[in-house]
Amino acid sequence: MKTRYFKFVLMPLIISCLIYACKKNDAAEAPAFDIGQLDQYCLYVRVASPEVPNSTVSDFIFDFKTGNIADLGSLEGLYTLTTKVMEDNSVKISMGLNDYVLFVVEKGKPVIKQWKLFGEVTELQLIKKPEINLLKGNTFTGTYYKSNNTVLHENFFYSYSALNNFSLTAGLKVNEPALRGEVYKSLGNIAAYVKKVNSTTADMEFMILVDGKLRVTYIDRVSNPTQYYHGVFIKK
After folding, report:
1. With contact defined as beta carbons under 8 Å apart, do 203 and 216 qualify?
2. What pLDDT, on the 0 to 100 scale, is given for residue 173?
3. How many angstroms separate the CA atoms of 173 and 171, rounded?
4. Which of 60, 84, 87, 236 is least crowded, fewest Cβ atoms below 10 Å from its Cβ?
5. pLDDT-based confidence at 24, cuts 50/70/90?
């Protein structure tokens, strides 16, 4: 009788307790944000920019470095900014006297206190930098859209070289010859910036891997007026 009681009553209870304990330990082992190690993180920001004609969204990455600086990458270019941890543990990123970002991390998530750059923040993520370039050696496919959300290219791909040369190819179909090849600047091991598409035009493109999807924005300065394109690409 005691054996049956242990088997049918106590055993399930013990198993449940063990499962709960394991989950609790896993949660306890999850690394918490350490403001003293800010250089291990990137801040991703997506903004709506209605004041920019023919534009829909803009993506930013703030790649924090040691020495109180951060590299800012976006479709508009690359910049080195200064950072400062304030007394209330908020972080100030300064682009100039009146152009800055002030954010704080609450329960592991960033919260904007002041945004003095253009546009309105619609999405915000604090991302732990991976140790390797997550774009390297991977191909992403998807659809390109115009700023009015009509289709520009139904099928398009980006393929990043597996070599250490920070190069990529881009085209309409993976199994067909690429339309162009580019060299990119890597940021935080999750983003890429191409300054001059085809090496001769004033076009630029910015790509960032967020939640496993490659978000791409592209500025076409050859067209008059300037055009902006965007798309979300999935790893093949």
Report:
1. no
2. 95
3. 6
4. 87
5. very low
Query: Is 130:190 a contact under the CB 8 Å cutoff?
Result: yes
For residue 195, what are the contacts with CB-CB under 8 A and spacing of at least 6? Answer: 77, 78, 185, 204
The span from the CA of 20 to the CA of 4, in Å, is 24
Contact 172, 152 (CB under 8 A): no
Burial class (CB in 10 A: 0-12, 13-18, 19+), 124: middle
Q: Specify the pTM.
A: 0.83
Query: Hey, what amino acid is at 133?
Result: N
- The answer to whether 158 touches 180, Cβ cutoff 8 Å, is no
Contacts of residue 151, defined as CB under 8 A and 6 or more positions apart, other chains included, come to: 143, 144, 145
**Could you tell me which of 176, 158, 175 has the C-alpha nearest to residue 167?**
158
CA distances from 149 to 9, 59, 60, 144 (A): 60, 17, 21, 9
CA nearest to 98, candidates 82, 116, 121: 116
Query: What is the structure's pLDDT at 126?
Result: 97
